[in-house]
Amino acid sequence: MQRVRLDVSERTQRGKGVARKLRAEGRIPAVMYGSGVPTLPLAVNAQELDKIEQGGTNALLDLSGPEAVAGKIVLLKDLQRDPVKRVPLHCDFYVIDPKKEITVYVQIHLQGRPVGVELGGVLEPQLRDLEISCLPLGIPDSIDVDVSSLDIGDAIRVSDLDLPEGVSTTAEPERSVAHVIAARVIEEEEEAEGEPLDTEEGDSAEEASPEADGGGDAG
Fold this sequence. Notes:
Elements (H helix, E strand, L loop, with lengths): L2 E8 L5 H9 L2 E8 L2 E9 H9 L5 E5 L8 E9 L6 E8 L6 E10 L3 H4 L2 E5 L3 E6 L8 E4 L8 E3 L10 E2 L6 E7 H12 L10 H4 L11
């Protein structure tokens, strides 16, 4: 598990004006909180935070700065970005206890080229992230899954995963992680999606309109 030191400073003022000033200085507003930990407004370097977030999920951060954060280990709980520029705007740091299990999502990495793909099949990932529980220092960078033995029609399920020691998951054991299907199955599905809807014949304009009386007995 990646562990990174991050310098932060305490933020004594709040508001949009303060946030704009921080961003002009290359920093963004942040907040630190956790079980039994008072909420503390902070400021952090935007570029440093961006590098950490892009380097992978679930990095453990050793905060450095004011006395209130000394010795705190946190997870980057939430990072808000500008919807257009994609630059960091605000983040949450969640204080963790190294001795207590936490629940996080970890990416699943499929490794190898399936036998079924060599025979013309197609590998379809079904689950990209797995919810796991473990001690913070035991969070794996990813769950690596070897799919090289999968033939056409084969699947790897959650129950087949070889999780690291001390790591558990509450995901359904029978849930599919990845499978290999025949290429023709995909072709048939695509053809079915492209077929026009059936319409009933005989619904002409004449049938849709009431019949006109051809004339009655003249009185």
